[in-house]
Amino acid sequence: MMRVGIMALTLLVMLWAVAIWRAARNEARAEAAYPPEGQIVDVDGIPVHAVVMGEGPDVVLIHGSSGNTRDMTFALAPILAANYRVIVFDRPGLGYSASFNPDGETIEEQADILQKAAALLGAEKPIVAGQSYGGSVSLAWAVTRPDNISGLVLIAPAAIPWETPLDGFNKLAATPTGNATALPLITAFVPEWYVEKALDRVFAPQTAPEGYADHFGPGLTIRRSSMHANAKQRANLLEEVRALQPRYGEIDVPTEIVHGTADDTVGLGWHSHKLIEQIPGAELIELPGVGHMPQVVSAPEVAAAIDRAAQRAGLR
């Protein structure tokens, strides 16, 4: 019996060693295939990855959960770059921006470091546009950094405290145990084609456009550090939004909200229909039949909302 136990333990150790090796190899391959698109900005010793393109009034784009700059540079940023200087950031812990809070960076901490990075790039009062979780960070920016924003554009924003519990994967991935056990197995053995297929669920009822997965780099998303950072942020988001919501009335910059009517991830009725009543002068554009990814599938409409915010702010 003891011999069987020793053999089983030996096999587990060997499997674990293989998983760690494969995870490291897959991460190295992903980073080689999808290197940083832009530059690294040092903000008080913390690396922040930024992509800058175009000329004109400054616009900052902030991606959602599990994302990186490539989500915004696929469609939206190139459209905007014809008329604006566009700055696309990796949020802390994702893409090539470093994590700096072991408990998960709050939306206010993220707004603070991204605002400082934008200022270092010469954007003192940009229009700030964020999608989903990035919309929560953008709201935090508008509330806590009011002197450093000219306009606010919210794309399918997670803005109103919700009632659904955190999913099981992110519950586990946010913990030290999940980080040490489950995440290496995912990075090691989940193939990229499976992640690419999962993208269609994010885009539903649309599907990911042709070329999106190749541009986005799914392998960057399933790195161990990225999954752990993302999960911790997701685990903390509800309480952070609950604390921020009473201050939405303080937002006094032109605000445009863009939301798909078929969004089952961040519901239009629960979030944007309620949010429009809480930000003075905010305007809401509903996109019929569009799901959770308007910045990709309806990029011209999102760009038009940014144009309206710029005009209302006197920048165009």
Question: What are the salient characteristics of this protein?
Answer:
316 residues; alpha/beta; Rossmann fold; eight-stranded mixed β-sheet; 48% helix
Write up what this structure looks like.
The protein has 316 residues and is α/β, with parallel strands linked by helices. The protein has a single domain, classed as Alpha/Beta hydrolase fold, catalytic domain (Rossmann fold). The chain contains 14 helices and eight strands. It has an eight-stranded mixed beta sheet with strand order 1-2-4-3-5-6-7-8, with helices on both faces. Strand 5 (127-131), helix 5 (133-144) and strand 6 form a beta-alpha-beta unit. The chain is globular, with a radius of gyration of 20 Å. The mean pLDDT is 95.
* Biggest beta sheet attributes: 8 strands, mixed
Q: Hey, roughly how much beta strand do the residues contain? A: 5-15%
Distance between the termini: 78 Å
CATH secondary-structure class: Alpha Beta
- N-to-C order of helices and strands: HEEEHHEHEHEHHHHHHEHEHH
How large, in whole angstroms, is the Cα Rg?
Answer: 20 Å
**Poorly predicted tracts of residues:** none
Please give the oligomerization state of what you see. single chain
What characteristic shape results from the CA principal axes?
globular
> How many domain regions?
1
Class by alpha and beta content: alpha/beta
Give me the CATH superfamily.
Answer: Alpha/Beta hydrolase fold, catalytic domain
CATH architecture: 3-Layer(aba) Sandwich
Counting DSSP H or I runs of 4 or more residues, the number of helices is 14
Please give the share of residues in helix. 40-55%
